[in-house]
Design brief:
2 helices, elongated, mainly alpha
Length: 82
């Protein structure tokens, strides 16, 4: 049962991590050049946001591994005799 729970928490963590990665990457790609243009005084800046599927996959894998490991470790610590 602990493996099923760990798997489900890993899936949720992967989805949340991917969503956060997409938002952060989009905001950095769009807002970054405008801020740099404003600070330098050159208002000719424009930007395009392209987020590749590879970076989203890496973020999902990291989120899944972290969520799975955290839940599995926590569950084993709670079940261990003291």
């Amino acid at each position: 049962m602990i493996y099923l729970k760990s798997f489900l928490v890993g899936l949720v963590a992967a989805i949340v991590t991917s969503a956060v990665w997409i938002v952060v990457a989009f905001v950095i790609d769009v807002v970054g050049p405008f801020l740099l243009a404003k600070w330098s005084g050159d208002y000719s800046g424009g930007s395009v946001a392209v987020i590749g599927s590879g970076s989203i996959l890496v973020a999902a894998l990291v989120g899944f591994a972290a969520g799975f490991a955290w839940t599995l470790r926590r569950g084993r610590q709670l079940m261990a005799p003291r």
